[in-house]
Amino acid sequence: MSLSVSTSSQQLEPPEQSGRSRSPRRLDACLWCGREVPDAGSGRRRRYCRQSCRQRAYEQRTAVKGSAFPDDAVVLTAEEASALVDRAFEVRCAAEDVATALSEGAPHADLEALCRDLVQLARDAERLR
Ligand SMILES: [Zn+2]
């Protein structure tokens, strides 16, 4: 037994992370829909958030095979792409609302509510479909 690893420090925050990180690591995104794939604990990482996503991805890979599209192409319908852009736009509007409220000296409770909306919209905007 030459290998001895102390696990006591692993419960602590990484020492190099001082202050709030600008880009925290995101959970893995579902390769089909882009939603976060919940961590299933130990074991290998899942690539899809649910069985239907795995199935749709398989169907698309089959459809794309032999075409000019790369195997890992992400193909969205015009409607899906439009909805994605719309969600991003909603996030911008919500962010601008926060900025406006701040510049106008809005009460703290109002800012909190606007930030809650912003976070919720941003979370929803992370998905592809
Ligand atoms: Zn998914």
Task: Report on this structure.
With 129 residues, this protein is mainly α. It folds into 2 domains: 25-74, no CATH class; 76-129. It is 45% helix and 0% strand. The protein has helices at 51-64, 78-103, 108-125. Helix 2 (78-103) runs antiparallel to helix 3 (108-125). The protein starts with 50 loop residues before the first helix and ends with a helix. The site of zinc ion has 8 residues, from loops.
Top keywords for this entry?
disordered N terminus, 2 domains, about 0% strand, binds zinc ion, about 130 residues, single chain, mainly alpha
Whole-angstrom Rg: 21 Å
Q: Ranges with pLDDT <50 over ≥5 residues?
A: 1-18
What's the total count of β strands? 0
Give average pLDDT, whole number: 84
Helical residues, percent: 40-55%
Bound molecules: zinc ion
Number of domains: 2
How far is the N terminus from the C terminus? 51 Å
Q: H/E series, N to C? A: HHH
**Tally of contiguous helical segments:** 3
Structural class: mainly alpha
**Shape by Cα distribution:** elongated
Largest sheet properties: none
Beta percentage is under 5%
